[in-house]
Amino acid sequence: MNxxxxxxxxxxxxxxxxxxxxxxxxxxxxxxxxxxxFKFAPFMAVFLFLAGCGERRLTALDPMGPQSQWIYDNMxxxxxxxxxxxxxxxxxxxxxVARFRHKEGDNEYPEQVHGSTKLEVAWTxxxxxxxxxxxxxxxxxQFYLSNTGLEAQEAENEEEVDEEExxxxxxxxLGDDVMKITATGHQFWWQFDYDFGDDSFxxxxxxxxxxxxxxxxxxxxxxxxxxxxVPALAGKVDNIPGIENYMWLEASEPGVxxxxxxxxxxxxxxxxxxxxxxxxxxxxDEWATxxxxxxxxxxESLANEGRELFEEQSCLQCHAVDGDGGAMGPSLANFGDRExxxxxxxxxxxxxxxxxxxxxxxxxxxxxxxxxxxxxEELDALVAYLNQLEKLDPETKEGLERD
Amino acid sequence: MAETTDLSKGLPxxxxxxxxxxxxxxxxxxxxxxxETTMFATFFGTYLGLRNGTGSGPEAADIxxxxxxxxxxxxxxxxxxxxxxxxxxxxxxxxxxxxxxMWVTVALGxxxxxxxxxxxxxxxxxxxGFTTSAFASSFYALVGLHGAHVLFGxxxxxxxxxxxxxxxxxxxxxxxxxxxxxxxxxxxxxWIFIFTxxxxxxxxx
Amino acid sequence: xVREATNTLQKSVLWDWLTTVDHKKLAVLYLISGxxxxxxxxxxxxxxxxQLMFPMNxxxxxxxxxxxxxxxxxxxxxxxxxxxxxxxxxxxxPLQIGARDVAFPFVNALGFxxxxxxxxxxxxxxxxxxxxxxxxxxxxxxxxxxxxxLGIDFYVLGLQVSGIGTLVSGxxxxxxxxxxxxxxxxxxxMPLFCWTTLVTSILIVFAFTPLAAGLALLMLDRMFDGMFFxxxxxxxxxxxxHIFWIFGHPEVYILVLPAFGMISEIIPTFSKxxxxxxxxMVFATLIIGFLGFMVWMHHxxxxxxxxxxxxxFAIATxxxxxxxxxxxxxxxxxxxxxxxxxxxxxxxASSFVPTFVLGGVTxxxxxxxxxxxxxxxxxxxxxxxxxxILGGIVLGLIGATFYWYPKMFGHxxxxxxxxxxxxxxxxxxxxxxxxxxxxxxxxxPRRVYTYLEGQGMDTMNMISTIGAFVMSAAIILLVIxxxxxxxxxxREGGDPWDGRTLEWATPTPVPEYNFAQTPQVRSLDPxxxxxxxxxxxxxxxxPIGDIHMPNGSIYPFTISxxxxxxxxxxxxxxxxxxxxxxxxxxxVGGIITFGSMALHSVKEDHGYHISKETVEQMEKEVGTNG
Lengths: 403, 205, 626
Hints:
The structure holds 3 protein chains of 3 kinds.
Chain A: H1 2-24, H2 26-39, H3 41-52, H4 66-99, H5 117-146, H6 150-162, H7 168-175, E1 179-186, E2 189-194, E3 201-204, E4 206-210, E5 215-221, E6 226-229, E7 237-239, E8 245-249, E9 255-261, E10 274-279, H8 281-292, H9 301-312, H10 349-357, H11 359-362, H12 376-387, H13 394-399
Parallel strand pairs in A: 1-5, 4-10
Antiparallel strand pairs in A: 1-2, 2-3, 5-8, 6-7, 6-9, 9-10
Chain B: H1 20-50, H2 60-63, H3 66-91, H4 95-125, H5 134-163, H6 173-204
Helix pairs in contact in B: 1-5, 1-6, 3-4, 3-6, 4-5, 5-6
Chain C: H1 2-5, H2 13-19, H3 23-51, H4 62-96, H5 105-124, H6 150-179, H7 192-223, H8 238-271, H9 278-291, H10 307-335, H11 344-367, H12 369-375, H13 379-409, H14 415-441, H15 458-488, E1 519-520, H16 526-533, E2 539-540, E3 547-549, H17 555-572, H18 582-602, E4 608-610, H19 612-625
Antiparallel strand pairs in C: 1-2, 3-4
Helix pairs in contact in C: 3-4, 3-5, 3-15, 4-5, 4-6, 4-8, 4-13, 5-6, 5-17, 6-7, 6-17, 7-8, 7-9, 8-10, 8-11, 8-13, 9-10, 10-11, 11-13, 13-14, 14-15, 17-18
């Protein structure tokens, strides 16, 4: 185990250094960059084209965090290496196709060559080197991705109990806490549990994280397998019932990121999207405090009616509006801040009403019962109640970047 | 093929491999056993993966009875030995002797199967049903699969013995008997692994 | 005529086909049923592409779409690609090694009927409340009793039955190739197609048995409340993934190796050169086959088995790139310096090389475990394996069809139609699948029935669907070609391509006994050797005489039918209101199966002999034919 820990540390240090160097030696590398640009101009064109595809904060071709950046860089590295193979094969192929053709009336057999040991050795050994180039980042990268920091933290916590005397250095390290969120997959929504010791709370379908902070995710599943994926920030890891998985991510810019479930989980697998919202640290703290507050009766009378209905219709059995309530459906504590309804619908009153009346037609196979008998007034009241369940500072909400 | 071979000087020393058909059966059966091995390996793997998944049910060490299993092991080992005697007899063209040894094999196999059924019934009484836990399921699947193989082997050998009761050893039935005894050895080898992996490891941890 | 001279004369046509144990007739049966399954699954693919044409399209519901992806994958791999490859393996391998039949003609027929009834069983699911819907991998818990519907039961039992068929066929091929070779046909003189068939068959023996075990476990879970894959009472859902991929990865090589073999036959023939680096090709095949079992966990990089396991399996996967590269370069150098004729078969075979390289390089990219956290379960993977399967296996199959068609059916397929078909297929294929790489990278997971607007996926999905239309048009053209050629193409002799291997030394149509006299093989590419060093015909290794042939038998059909009933009976256990007790159906099926087996075992069937005179007369007839 010690050697693994060492590898962990080693890799993350190296990677850290790597990124610092990248930043510092900007000017020097500009010349190199230009030279490279000429060499690989055609590739660059392809990459520009690729980067042009897809939506910012969704596509993995426009990485927005250190992990996705690492993945992107190494994908490009592998593309370069593979380009060598492709070029060699295609050049050979087109030469063959152009040069060696059978001509009418030529009945001679060509020379029956048996083979060539030298060539065989060549195309065995050269690819070995090419693969070696890829094998090194494969191993180091896997440790980099798997290192959530949770394990190290636990080990240190244990040490703390064992040894009372701590020198200043390790005390500093201890302060470097990893934030932990448990992401649980359900058919077809996400539950995010924030663990701040005594002050824990639950959010549904939208996960808020502080920007520029490494966040560790514990992945679980309630029913079938799911897979937690924010393409612009990190690689995916599966949520498996009965098993705890771990991953981490870090967002370098505030904004609203799109996440997806990447493992087939039933009829509405395609609609199991979620949002990851990265906030500045102070804004995040504010939000987290708000989330821990108890739900209060709204001042507006319509919304108050809605609140009563919400209890009458036993919505509370499945949906929590603060720490209490069931967990069969997503927590609605901050429903008013939602970017989507039912993970994909645009936030409008009409959509919300349609959803309450007949969820099955909008999202096949989900577990929410239909409420077709609610009158228009009742629906209005419910909508008014739900829409005022806001936890995010209005200014912050306004300033969120969505594309 | 069979009738074209010259039998005037008696059977060749390896009657099971004397014809192309016999050779094909011989090789084909070995390949089949390779496949069977992989299948059992998968069941073993599943058992090893799930043997600690006892849930709320009893654990291996609580229920396994080594003396019973030891007796079963001895019975099956002996039956393997008697089938070897039968094959020796076949190569010497002593049909009657072969028949007797084969029937002894069948008798021992039946005894083994009886003990196994008794064993399963006992476990169910102790509260280890097939659906009790993942450990129970994988245990019954692995040992039950072996039991099914024993049952199939018994039917097969009996059928051969009845069918060729009066025919003597021929180039047609020699490969069949040979292959059946090969199958029987295979079952025996699998049991050795079950004895070790399931019972000894179950009791010893 | 040839067929009438032997004992098939007395039988009706239907009875003859039901009871045949002739490897050539079974090959035709495989070809027809494989093609039908291929068309069915292809149609599903077109429907799925129509659904994905526009964002939030409602042509198919999510549930139906899931049933389509599952059936498309399951049918294509188990019930289309496998039998189509088996068709050629059955027809060609005995001819190429100079044998009169396979080692176990009875088992050969059994293999076909098991596959056939297994396929029917899977397809029946549509009529009993819906097809399986958990993907061709049927990951638990989505496929376990709490979440998966009756369709999964059809998947489990149908694949179990057809899997046994594949397994026994595999055993048969191994014994045939090892024991039945003509005199002088040493292992290192065997055509590469025989080698790949041998390695594929070995893989079948070691891969389909874990599948059988896994399916049995899933069946116990679903029908008898087993606890294997139920988390909570100690069960573990990841075990299913391990078992499935221990089978599933070799399965890829089971399919692609015979395609490699076909390419290795077609390219030398139309380059008029012997295969470059034959020995290296043989060993590359063996190494690929071996490594195929060492890499299954690369399908599970995101399951969380730890960085060490991920790294080990990543590197093992990369190493497979090397023997594959050896093959690619050997094909290129076979063509180098040759005199290439570009007919449809050669177009497919030669374009296979660069296309397969594109699939191969994405394979190496996927092998980088940490980067695979991005690719896994996205359209990038979909693009990758379609480049392997369509650009590899299907191109190989189409090439093989054009190449061996005159041997199997006595006439060539039309070349003009063939070339149009090839270009349509090739262009359509790249249109469909190239953009899917990028779709995956910009965030489109696989197996999604729809996608939202404004995610930059609209245009590329449209392109992909158009490509799929072009590809289907090409397949329709192929079907037209088959019908057109049957009416218009002239009859061909035994050796229409100036062939190099033994199958071209037989007359067309191939007589029931293949070779009147077993040929004496003197070299690799034996027929070509005789063309250069002899008079162009094979030297016989034995005098002409009576030929022993196996009798037809209905038991393969009844054994399979019994298993079909038994399988259906097990499915009925999960049906809510079965008309009769499932146990009766299971018992009836069991009695038919085991009864047939016992009858077959008890009845000694020594076959029959074609007399020397008949053989001589038939050879004369065939001689005038071609």
